[in-house]
Design goal:
The chain is mainly alpha-helical and 498 residues long. Among the domains are: 275-346, no CATH class; 407-498, no CATH class. The protein is built from 28 helices and no strands. α5 packs parallel to α7 (115-125), α7 (115-125) packs parallel to α9 (150-166) and α14 (244-252) runs antiparallel to α15. It is elongated, with a radius of gyration of 37 Å.
Length: 498
Amino acid sequence: MSVVERTCPLLLSGIDGDNTPKMDELSKKLESGNDNEKIEALKEIIHCVITGIEMSRLTMQVIKFCLRSRDHRIKKLLQIYWEVLDKKYPNSDKLKPEIILVCNHLLNDLKHPNEYIRGSTCRLLCRISEPEILEQLVPQVLANLEHRNSYVRKNAVLALMRIYALHNELVPDAPQRVYEFLMKEGNPLAKRNAFLMLANCDLRNALDFFLTVNDKIGSYSETMQTSILELMRKVCRQLPVPKSIFVKCAAYLLDSSSNAVVYEAANTLLSLTPLDSAINRALEAYARLLQSESDQNIKIVVINRLDSLKRRYDRNLRFVLMDILRALSTPNLDIRTKILALVLELSSPQNIEDIIGVLKKELVSANAEADPQITLYRGKLVETMHQCAVKFPQVAPQVVHLLMNHLDANVIMFVKEMLQDYHDLQESILQKLLENFAEISDEMVSRTALWIIGEYAQTKELIATSIDAIMRALGDLPLHTNESNEEEGKCKSNLLII
């Protein structure tokens, strides 16, 4: 596989044709004693290599004139160069002879007195896969696990994890060494990296460590707690151990100060136990995240998660439905729409009264604002209340008068159905319709409203009130269009002039 295929699935090259740097020019820059020129040459070489241009003839020049440089910028560029360089002959598994010199250079960097160079070299080894190179470096990587600086230790663990994953025969005792390292390590990041290696390479040792520190998990960092939760799920899938040993810990992490940990703890708890008490606690944690999290994208992730759980935990979700409804205070329309859709699916005869109460308050507060987004939200609220009233007729009398302040095609048909089914509400519904009749602008809604008035206005008082409302909506007679009114006005003006 070429370096281009290994490093970039989509290639956007800025080098083509006449713009390709010449080998002689790059060689002169590398041979110069000026570090800035060497840096410029290295950047051009790296760019050419990752865009598929053959630069192997310059490898010895780079080794000869750049390896001994003490400039840290050159050191960093060299690490990028060793990563992208083709270290074997094309269509062959044979290592190029000059790479032996690179191995010695990397070994010296792993012993370098500068902690940053040691740590970054360990990091570089995570991106090198050739066993001939790694075999010579393994002893020093293991030695760096004991280094006094945590930056070196945490990257040495990552390098060891990568080497063991690719070629476990090079360091067969790596899991045991990392387990011993983990038990005495104090740095949170180094500890998390070591635990991550055990979780990926040796589940039993990772489980032993978890059981040892189970009561101390609250003092660990966010990343460590997240890794432990991932271990719980992985152990339950792959090892024959009782899930109950993890339930208490997962439930404890639901009260973490980190929202990421709370989300993962809720996911883990749902996968560990079918007990209603645990399920309810996990769902309550999701609802709290909807209220406390400020990132809109995370809110959408949580809502989608709740939506995916509604079939399995329909009954449990109804207990936290009012907490979910509190998230309607979020100004984002997409989030509000998703919440309303979820609430509509979770509505039941037992909770519909509470749902309608919340939606009424939201609609009243939305009426006070004229923002376009609020207008769209108001429409969503009206639609949801309409669907609730259709789904649960017992709440229809509570919402019909409120919905008539927002007459559209759906609402007017709903009013028509209400008049047919609830004879005792006919007079009050008609009175409300006549109050809002002048505000109707849609012709289909107007036709339906006129039919309703003609059909159900049966008393003398209602008929008189209806005629007055219709005449007020029509305006002064005879009826004129705006154009005819303007022409009539011009005629009157001309007559006055004459």
